[in-house]
Amino acid sequence: MQRLDPQPPANDPVWKGHNPGDGAIYTRVCLSDALGAAAGAQIVPQVFWAAAAPAVNVDPEQLAREAVDRMLLTGPDIASPRAAGKYIVGVPMWIWVNESPTTFGPNSASATLAGVTVTAKAKVTKTDWTMGDGSAVTCLGPGTTYEASYGKQESPTCGHTYTSTSASQTGSKYGVTATATWTVDWQVNGGGETGQFTETRQSQAQVAIGELQVVR
Predict the structure, then answer these.
(1) pTM of the prediction?
(2) Could you tell me if 88 and 143 lie in one domain?
(3) Confidence of residue 151 (pLDDT cuts 50, 70, 90)
(4) How many domains does the chain have?
(5) pLDDT value at 21 more than 90
(6) Does residue 142 sit in the same domain as residue 79?
(7) Which of 71, 101, 112, 209 is packed most tightly, with the most Cβ within 10 A?
(8) 110, 67 in Cβ contact below 8 A?
């Protein structure tokens, strides 16, 4: 809600018969309209006369969600399993993701309406993996990066062991989906109201699982 400055001339039809001294002309844009504009819709402000400044009811959680939209959060940046990787039945696979502000966090942004500013902070708190073979894995962190010196050890934080090849799958690969849960903590600036909510983002990958053949 905003008071027009300068005000329209007294003969402007927007006054609807009122005199400038009787009140003022305001414009109003709903937050949902602003979010729609971000998606390409056109904002059409509502223009109206009011005898006194209208009260503005601000939903701080809605402002926090607008702040999250500005973060441009995405699904996990999958480092392993790699589409071009070579994985073997019965050998532990290490699962991990690359960390950045938009793929894992932490990330923060603010949004303001009618003098109220809300700051939101977001970070991935878990990633749920569906491995394509009917198995599911939940990881509470980014996972541990594999190094050759680890050999055939299992990952200490996030991993999976396939028990059958992907030969029967489409493209001879298992389809893997990683769903990140972003936990968002928000607060009205100045020590006001606080809250929390979650959002999810997904990424997909494919992985080929083969088996070793012993030749004698």
Answers:
(1) 0.75
(2) yes
(3) very high
(4) 2
(5) no
(6) yes
(7) 209
(8) yes
